[in-house]
Amino acid sequence: MFTNQQINLDILPSIDDVALKPISKQYLMIIVINRWVFYALIVSALMVAKLKIVHVGFQLAFWYLFSACTLFCILNFVVALLAFKKRKYAIREQDVIFSKGLLVNSISVIPISRIQHIEISRSWLARRFNLATLKIFTAGESGIDLRIAGLNYSEAKQINDFLSNRVNGID
Q1: Rounded distance, CA 145 to CA 148, Å?
Q2: In terms of Cα–Cα distance, which of 128, 107, 110, 130 is closest to 120?
Q3: Among residues 5, 22, 30, 81, which one has the fewest Cβ atoms lying within 10 Å of its Cβ?
Q4: What per-residue confidence (pLDDT) applies to 62?
């Protein structure tokens, strides 16, 4: 006979009780460098447009456009800095937890039993700071289910080994 009893939510463990660990502070430098390169490209494109487009209307509107882009860049930079502090993770016996987001906070929990594949990747900039990104794939077609960027490389390897052993049944 099929039963489907309601669970008392008061007895469920709370995710708020988990001590989440922040990602490496060095990852902030990668964020800053990436943002500044992006901003430099935007400003360069605006300057080239100012020099190439001789239309009077554009020349008059240029400073409004430049001011709007500058404001966007400043706000984007501040939000990126504040959001950095919200990137935290935890590795537990049965799952991996990752929390991120400033305006919209998301918490991802991946059960270790659902992990199919784990990958460590490092960009050229991340290698300079000895950082890595841990990518966790689960069953399904969605691609990467969890991506934790900004881990120290040795820590990423340690987590990778632990999770691989758990997935493969080696304790």
Answers
A1: 10
A2: 130
A3: 5
A4: 85
